[in-house]
Design brief:
- The complex is a heterodimer of chains A (428) and B (297).
- With 428 residues, chain A is α/β, with parallel strands linked by helices.
- Chain A contains 17 helices and 14 strands.
- In chain A, helix 14 crosses helix 15.
- The longest helix of chain A is centred in the first third of the chain and has 15 residues.
- Chain B is 43% helix and 12% strand.
- In chain B, helix 2 runs parallel beside helix 12 and helix 10 runs parallel beside helix 12.
- The interface between A and B is large, with 37 and 40 residues.
Chain lengths: 428, 297
């Protein structure tokens, strides 16, 4: 598979440094990561780790995944230059979008899901469970389950089932059972709790198809590996297109899978600045955002030690974002490590900034992005004229992790585009 | 790490040991009488902090031998709906981590060692060493840690050694022989055998693999194994007590406090449920003076 050994070309002056960051493996990234789970799950995690590494060493696995990506996902996804949007970034920057929104199912999530679903077959299990916030991971999981003949249950916070009703319908059409979670904050965090409870009870027949680069080892490493082809393709495409690497890479960060997917190929290129944009929500007060690096501290949630929104007792603080997919109080442990060693910079983007960028991309380029991805677009704008200081001809690469079909109703309400009488409860 | 199964409750045997009773000597004493222990779980803060202290006292007076006091947590992945409901209520009522230590102080010294059941982030945030120090000072016996396996517990192992506290790790039907051995070696007090692959809650039958798991855990070197998850009725308690050193009950106790017209009614129900389960435990047939597998302690 392309994600395992990239064999990527070395750019003069950009030779990988000793002690590659890109090939770092779990269970720990510095002080982060690990396995903070009930003992009942340890055997399944060990089994998964073994099966995953055996699969990596098996050319047949890589070939099958590559075939699915080529013939089913639609990879490689294109790289699109967006000059009319770039005019709003400033600094004379050229902006390129990595078009994960054009993947089958409409987001980057399918990369990881297909990889894990093939592993499920190898594990001899017949059922997958998943958690989903915005529904993109749930739709991707339901899709792969249908493709490979697996039973599928998706846990989704009740609040998210309401704001992402279209994706709930898509999952059900694909044959998945969608279980609204009515306890706790009724969002992604609680969907993960419920999925973990299900997994503990049914681990012999069931694989927890975790959707992001968090959770207990080996999930952060494995999910990163299934997504790193995003960056590898983008790197090769940029080198082919303009003959050089970008000055900055921007991605939104909820759990952090799309960001890790595009960052990985550039981690050892010291000249490439990496930016993760978190949900700054309504502001940086407790409960108003999901900006773990602005308002969080290291702690343990859902099996890994990482930055976490928590109160002084260690209780998880509810997060908020206009984007269901970024509304998560923790973040993948590798991101925490990259933050602490200074390799990547994480900044908050407010709901309003994200929605402005959402509209801007619609109107300048004819692309409706996922609201998650709009955070990365807003981040690129936030970088602003300073990109001009990094290079004479600055280049910014933005990961457009998903398309915005699922978010049309939210955006319509946000911008007041519905006729009187059509408008439900606003998100604002 | 101590290498395992010594219950070093002797004052002065550990640095700064101010701990109250640990569970090992008590379980050994009960085994010598030919019976298992009833271990009862209740969360702090349900229906209120003082109310939960009163409930624990009621439970001890009605026959619980070891108390498992739960620290309410926002993300309890090992708990089923009954306990979640009570914990959610406790958190909404403003229950804090320090309330747990206060509660330990108020129920310690009544004849039943008090273990705290906690998800790990709460201890991590408090500070592992500071929590061990304060728990020992409050008279607590140690911790049950459902989401902390020994592999990740270096700091807790050091702190529990320093303060003479029990560390109760879990084993599950899925645990491999190697993991049984390493978990037994890291545990002190007893090993918590999860009767089934699942979360807390009452079940019609206790997991069929529980007895084998207890036997396997003993074979891995554990002198004391208590069984939890799914036990709610006296006959189940009796069944488990015939082969385990302790019977751990949670949801059935919590349920007796839910949906009652007033706290006094809840306490009456709790006392009844406790007495019935305690009688169940005491009715089990086992040899006196040693463990059920015949080894002397």
């Amino acid at each position: 598979m392309s994600g395992v050994d990239s064999g990527r070309p070395v750019v003069p002056g950009q030779e990988p440094r000793l002690g590659s960051l890109a090939t770092h493996v779990g269970p720990y990234w510095g002080d982060f990561g690990g396995r903070f789970v009930p003992e009942a799950l340890i055997a399944a995690l060990d089994e998964l780790d073994t099966a995953y590494h055996k699969a990596l060493a098996d050319p047949a696995f890589g070939a099958e995944l590559a075939r699915l990506h080529r013939t089913y996902t639609g990879r490689p996804s294109p790289l699109t230059e967006v000059p009319r949007f770039a005019a709003h970034v400033g600094g004379g920057a050229r902006v390129f979008l990595k078009r994960e929104d054009l993947n089958h199912t409409g987001s980057h999530k399918i990369n990881n899901v297909l990889g894990q679903a093939l592993l499920v077959k190898r594990l001899g299990k017949s059922r997958v469970i998943a958690e989903t916030g915005a529904g993109q991971h749930g739709v991707a999981t339901a899709t792969a389950a249908a493709l490979l003949g697996l039973e599928c249950t998706v846990y989704m916070g009740e609040e998210d089932t309401q704001r992402q009703a279209l994706n709930v319908a898509r999952m059900r059409l694909l044959g998945a059972e969608v279980v609204p979670v009515t306890i706790g904050t009724r969002t992604l965090k609680d969907a993960i709790n419920e999925a973990l409870r299900d997994w503990v009870a049914n681990v012999e027949t069931t694989h927890y198809l975790l959707g992001t680069v968090t959770g207990p080892h080996p999930f952060p490493e494995m999910v990163r590996d299934f997504h790193k082809l995003i960056g590898e393709e983008a790197r090769a495409q940029l080198l082919g297109e303009i003959g050089r690497l970008p000055d900055a890479v921007a991605a939104c960060v909820g759990g952090g899978s799309n960001a890790m997917g595009i960052f990985n190929a550039f981690l050892d290129d010291e000249g490439v600045r990496l930016f993760g944009f978190e949900a700054g929500g309504r502001g940086l007060g407790p409960g108003d955002h999901a900006a773990r690096f602005s308002g969080g501290a290291p702690g343990v949630l859902h099996g890994a030690r990482s930055y976490l929104l928590q109160d002084e007792d260690g209780q998880t603080i509810p997060s908020h974002s206009v984007s269901a997919g970024l509304d998560y109080p923790s973040v993948g442990p590798e991101h925490s490590w990259l933050h602490d060693i200074g390799r990547a910079t994480y900044l908050p983007v407010s709901d309003a900034e994200a929605m402005d960028a959402f509209r801007l991309l619609c109107r300048t380029e004819g692309i409706i992005p996922a609201i998650e991805s709009a955070h990365a677009l807003a981040g690129a704008i936030q970088l602003g004229p300073q990109v001009g200081e990094w290079s004479d001809e600055p280049v910014v690469l933005v990961n457009l992790s998903g398309r915005g079909d699922k978010d049309v109703a939210t955006a319509a309400r946000w911008f007041g585009l519905l006729d009187a009488g059509d408008e439900g409860e606003g998100d604002r | 790490m101590s290498g395992g199964q010594t219950t070093s409750a002797t004052p002065g045997a550990t640095t700064g040991a101010t701990t109250g009773a640990t569970t090992g000597p008590l379980l050994d004493g009960l085994a010598a009488q030919g019976r298992a222990a009833l271990v009862g779980y209740l969360p702090v803060g349900y229906p209120s902090v003082p109310g939960s202290v009163q409930a624990v006292r009621t439970m001890i007076d009605a026959g619980v031998d070891v108390v498992e006091l739960g620290m309410p947590y926002t993300d309890p992945v090992m708990d089923g709906p009954v306990i979640q409901r009570a914990v959610d209520h406790a958190l909404r009522g403003g229950t804090r981590v320090r309330d747990t230590l206060t509660a330990v102080e108020q129920v310690a010294g009544r004849g039943a060692p008090v273990l705290v059941m906690t998800y790990w982030n709460l201890v991590l945030r408090y500070g592992v060493e500071a929590y061990a120090r304060d728990l020992a000072a409050a008279g607590g016996a140690g911790l049950i840690t459902p989401d902390l396996v020994p592999d990740e517990a270096e700091a807790w192992i050091a702190a529990s050694d320093a303060h003479g506290l029990d560390r109760v790790f879990l084993v599950a039907p899925s645990s491999t022989p190697e993991r049984l051995a390493s978990t037994v070696a890291a545990s002190r007090g007893f090993v918590y055998a999860a009767s089934t692959m699942g979360v807390t809650g009452e079940r019609a039958t206790v997991g069929s693999r529980a007895e084998q798991l207890v036997a396997d855990t003993r074979a891995a070197g554990a002198p004391r194994v208590c069984v939890g998850l799914g036990v709610s009725r006296p006959e189940q308690a009796a069944q488990v007590a015939s082969y385990a050193d302790g019977v751990i009950v949670g949801s059935a106790f919590v349920r007796s406090l839910l949906d009652v017209s007033d706290e006094a009614t809840g306490l009456d129900r709790l006392a009844e449920v406790t007495a019935a389960l305690a009688a169940g435990v005491r009715s089990a047939q086992r040899p006196a003076g040693g463990s059920v597998d015949g080894s002397a302690r």
